[in-house]
Amino acid sequence: GTSSHLACLGALAVVVKVARLPGRRRRRGTALLVLPRPCTEDPEGLIDAAKRYFGLGNEVVQQLGPTCKEDLERELADDFEFVAPLVGPLGKSALIAATAGLDIAAALPDFDARYHAFRMDPDNPRRVWCQMRVRGTQTGTLKFATVTAPPTEPPVRVENPPEAVSLTFNEEGKVR
């Protein structure tokens, strides 16, 4: 509800020293810097819903989310849109088609998305943010949409830096 969402809008105030900048007349002093506070209050259980979504169909430690057509049909809203820096926007049917045949366990059996730091968006009470730090070793053939990538010798080991990920849920609990 609104009152619990407002609790997420609290902030952390930090006092910082301000030094005189070259060529400026301003004296040294202090300034108040207000930083948003991560919000973990989740009255509707959307953080648990996000964790459940990311765990659907896992055959590895933790994959990127469901790849099974039936899971995606059930979990995604009709107005779903996937947007990433190099991919998208993809609607529901386009994402389902793109992930058909994707078998992360066959290509990267030790794959782990390592989701962590789940929190609610302070501006959107239906959006959950988290971080992921993907790692895995490609020892099998990776098939994604029209791309087929056989393993190399030695195998490619992937360890990505942290990435921010978000899921927005509609009122019916489906991923938008």
Features:
176 residues; alpha+beta; disordered N terminus; 3-stranded antiparallel beta sheet; 20% helix; single chain; two-stranded antiparallel sheet
Task: Write up what this structure looks like.
It is a single chain. This protein has 176 residues and is of the alpha+beta class. The protein is 20% helix and 29% strand. It is built from 5 helices and 11 strands. The protein has helices at residues 2-7, 46-55, 69-75, 92-99, 104-107, and strands at residues 11-18, 29-36, 81-82, 90-91, 116-120, 127-132, 135-138, 142-144, 147-149, 156-159, 163-168. It has a 3-stranded antiparallel sheet, with helices on one face. It is globular, with a radius of gyration of 21 Å. The chain starts with a helix and ends in an 8-residue tail after the last strand.
Termini separation:
19 Å
Number of helices: 5
Rg over CA atoms, rounded to whole Å, is: 21 Å
| Number of separate strands | 11
Structural class: alpha+beta
User: What proportion of the residues is helical, as a percent range?
Assistant: 10-25%
Strand order of the largest sheet: 5-6-11
Globular, elongated, flat, extended or rod-shaped: what is the shape?
globular
Largest sheet: 3 strands, antiparallel
Low-confidence stretches: 1-19
Strand share of the residues?
25-35%
What is the typical, i.e. mean, pLDDT? Answer: 81
Query: What order do the SSEs take from the amino end to the carboxyl end, as H and E?
Result: HEEHHEEHHEEEEEEE
